[in-house]
Amino acid sequence: MSEPRRSIATVCLSGTLEDKLAAAAAAGFDGVEIFENDLIASAASPAEIGVRCRDLGLSVDLYQPFRDFEAVPPARLRDNLRRAERKFDVMEQLGADLVLVCSTVSPDAVDDDELAAEQLRTLAQRAEARGMRVAYEALAWGRFVNTYEHSWRIVRRADHPALGLCLDTFHVLSRDGDPALIRTIPGEKLFFLQLADAPQLDMDVLQWSRHHRLFPGQGSFDLATFAGNVLEAGYTGPLSLEVFNDVFRQADPKPAAVDAMRSLRMLEEQLGIPVAEPAPDLDGYAFTELVADPATATRLAEGLAALGFTETGEHRSKPVRRWEQGGARVLINTTASTSDTAEIGALAVESSDPLRSARRAEAMSSPILPRERGPQEAGLSSVAAPDGTGVFFCDTAAPDGWLSDFRDTATPGRGLGVTGIDHVSLTQPFDHFDEAALFCRSVLGLEPEEITEYAAPFGMVRNRGMVDATCSVRIALNGTLVRRGEWAPAVRDPQHIAFTCTGVIAAAEHLRASGAPVLSIPDNYYDDLDARFGLRPELLETLRRCSVLYDRDAGGEFLHLFTELFGSRVFLELVQRVDDYAGYGVANAPVRMAAHRRQRMTASGR
Amino acid sequence: MSEPRRSIATVCLSGTLEDKLAAAAAAGFDGVEIFENDLIASAASPAEIGVRCRDLGLSVDLYQPFRDFEAVPPARLRDNLRRAERKFDVMEQLGADLVLVCSTVSPDAVDDDELAAEQLRTLAQRAEARGMRVAYEALAWGRFVNTYEHSWRIVRRADHPALGLCLDTFHVLSRDGDPALIRTIPGEKLFFLQLADAPQLDMDVLQWSRHHRLFPGQGSFDLATFAGNVLEAGYTGPLSLEVFNDVFRQADPKPAAVDAMRSLRMLEEQLGIPVAEPAPDLDGYAFTELVADPATATRLAEGLAALGFTETGEHRSKPVRRWEQGGARVLINTTASTSDTAEIGALAVESSDPLRSARRAEAMSSPILPRERGPQEAGLSSVAAPDGTGVFFCDTAAPDGWLSDFRDTATPGRGLGVTGIDHVSLTQPFDHFDEAALFCRSVLGLEPEEITEYAAPFGMVRNRGMVDATCSVRIALNGTLVRRGEWAPAVRDPQHIAFTCTGVIAAAEHLRASGAPVLSIPDNYYDDLDARFGLRPELLETLRRCSVLYDRDAGGEFLHLFTELFGSRVFLELVQRVDDYAGYGVANAPVRMAAHRRQRMTASGR
């Protein structure tokens, strides 16, 4: 199957119509659906917008929406036909030949399929006379027509070549509709396909549709099966995104359009369209790079040393030191210029084929970052995640791999039982939470876990793990449910690296003895742990003494401890998964957040 | 009836437990419900928190929540009793003697009222032995017990003096429960009353409860009837707020606690408790004050002159000029120091008793602002609305009224038909939208209209009119559904004054001829108007020529025009309500917003 044409409804993106068209074109879309209100607010005439679209390489695939047309009394029909002719005027200027007519929600309408079909046929005749066509769509909340099967019965009854169906995945799947019957509809009657995903929510379907739609792959609908049926029926139009989402509506349209394009490419891949080479298998983290100012870097180095890491190398040309322990590697880059700064600048994964990983990333709308490097240095490819973190694809064992950029200075010591990186936790910018998950999924081949929401001291937080098939790479995405305002914790957008440790309690005892900067956890937490889990008193006292936290799920137990913050947002964690514990200790996150705030408030003398 | 004790659950407010207690005390609460997770994250021991509360004048009225206790197999009962004893330890230290037990949602539990009653009696015996009591609450989503009637049957069956009911308005009213039967419950069995309002939403009740509760008077529940029944039954405990709200959870707790207190006072007033003198009748706007830098003030003055206003006076001691036209008065204050600045600094309403208005404002947690004034100046009282706008209470006709602070410099000219101020439109800070409505309601005696949501070019916006009984004072509150991020329109937080005009079209023709800074509305808007309304062609062309906008509702028609922006956020509007049009032309707001952005982008040369 060849690549289909790709469209996006202007309503998916924020800004003026001009902003939206520019963003859609820049992201590589072939066409747009023009949402009427976007045009109405524009100072450019429809003809000028048409020219603009053609200049940008965009076709105008649909004009929408035309509401409340059919099954009305004669006087109202006359008004509606007049209204339609005015819109045909606009479409003519735009260079659009397809209009979307939504099933009526009007109190004027009657429940009469024959009347609806007759009036739609009249509309189709008018359209045909002007070289246009009408795509009739069943809204999930249509007054009488709210399933695609019903809209198809009416279109079939109207039997006019200029009248066909528009299928919108949301309207069908939100009502648990069965997309299998789509295959029975003749392809030439399928005029348009609108794609939208959504999280599974138990709420009024109109509100769900207007506020919470997502791009494909960001929600829980099976769009591949749906779109597969449509293509199998013989649909030849574009794959078009129509997503109403409160966050996207106010986010920068340029990255949002890229996100949209990525979602479409991933869907196409699921449909068997060869848009990208498959994601290579991953095998854990190669390294994580922390970027800090020199003073904070010194504290980070002391912290890593306390956790049992050894400084094992220095970069041949950059102010970067390599720290290691049992397969966990951390780079400390001291190029940050603002004091009190540390952040995760990059993470690197072991890929079975780094070049293919890079090619896939480019095909998935994540271009390889330009990178300065010395003449002898390894050709590492990296892409930027939506939060700006660099993602490298590595083959550490290769002779000319990234390690050759470092001069070895020492061999790792015995350490404290750290064997690797369990996960990297990244707080995502508010506008990019769903995009981040899609990035991990499409570019890295990670699969999303369930979203967990919890009440933290400074607002609701959500957490979503992304994990590869062998659980060798986990990324924990975090974000707030409401964009942070002025009132906020001392710690904004925290990030951390969690190291796998064979014995967190033994490590914790050692850290306690050595005076390491372990985050102090309050007694109240342990009193509650006692109430909830009834742990053995000796274990409970050890946890309390060493500030080790505890969680349990159906698969097993979780022991973990946090360091204090280095700079304003970065900390480290040691974790131990006993048996098959699958989570991230999220239940303990509010306690950790309050403790980090105490650390910062104490440090700032407040 | 005397003033009851007032409590607030710590979960209503953002921050650490210490932040929350401080905010609750500062707002005047008598007690708190301590939410367990707030305590667990605190480094202060329960005993220390108990001392802190007493030092702040707060009693600990409830410890909550204790979940999934009742109707379980014997082994689980032993665990649960052990867990309860640990929590009694905590309560003892806190100085709390009442624990909230929520009806079970556990898969371990069975549907057996007798077993539930027996086990709750056992728990009550344990509590009694420690001088404590248990308040049993039916969660709306309880597995077996989800109505207060059912929880009361179980409590009655358990028949223990240390076991009573906790009633939560949300859990009853979200399920359309009938609060009338509360009157049949003996007062001594009503241990606790939790108050929460909510907007009417059609969604999963647990999600509704956890994210969307509001303070009393901010939603659509009839809390007065509910609480009245509880008091009538003989309840003597505190009126306590328990509100889970995503926005309040991340907003500054100090104003949020004041908002909470105000909501409680208004509810008490509805219950017939004499907390404040009634709101005096209002009779329109006395004036609106615009604060601008001198250059922007000059442009504003030119704009007002173009709209037919006359500069009629100057303040005796301050850089403030008075402009008038047919009962509409605008003050221009030139004390702003930042260029390109104009904002609505204050609005003033005519009160039938300004001193009583001020006393009511103070009783409703809105203290009178301190104010510098000269020895001869009128004693105007003003309070601050949640967005910082000053609100003055005036009696303009009084001999020593505010007009006496001005030296008259001219008498108003003929003007363009402006007769007064129709409404003032204020964009509210994201965290304070619901608070603003409650302020208008409780302090000014305005009633809320329906919230209208609409898609604007840069995100979803909501609009809520607040209006007095005679429609003499209207305030339009605006806000975004999602807090604005970096990507945003040129116009942030727009504000405007809408003047009533007897003939907007005639005024518009005049303005066009005079070259006034009227906001230019695009042709596309008029083409759509034509399609939608089929206006007479001459009318349509006049509207188009003069950039007059049009709307229609069940009551009548609306003609309005906007000026360009003065500074970065303020503009003016002329409005004409034909017959009984009740809205604010919100349907046209997106067109206006896009046009203002064009004005700003053009001005900045982008």
Structural descriptors:
17 helices, alpha/beta, TIM Barrel, 606 residues, 2,3-Dihydroxybiphenyl 1,2-Dioxygenase, domain 1, homodimer
What does this structure look like?
2 copies of one chain form a homodimer. With 606 residues, chain A is of the alpha/beta class. Chain A contains 17 helices and 24 strands. In chain A, the strands form 3 sheets. Chain A has an 8-stranded parallel β-barrel with strand order 1-2-3-4-5-6-7-8, surrounded by 7 helices. The first copy, chain A, is elongated and about 90 Å long. The first copy, chain A, has 2 domains: 6-270, TIM Barrel (Alpha-Beta Barrel); 282-603, 2,3-Dihydroxybiphenyl 1,2-Dioxygenase, domain 1. The model of chain A has no long low-confidence stretch (mean pLDDT 95). The longest helix of chain A is centred in the N-terminal third of the chain and has 21 residues, at 74-94. In chain A, 33% of the residues lie in helices and 26% in strands. At the A-B interface, helix 2, helix 4, helix 15 and helix 17 of A face helix 2, helix 4, helix 15 and helix 17 of B.
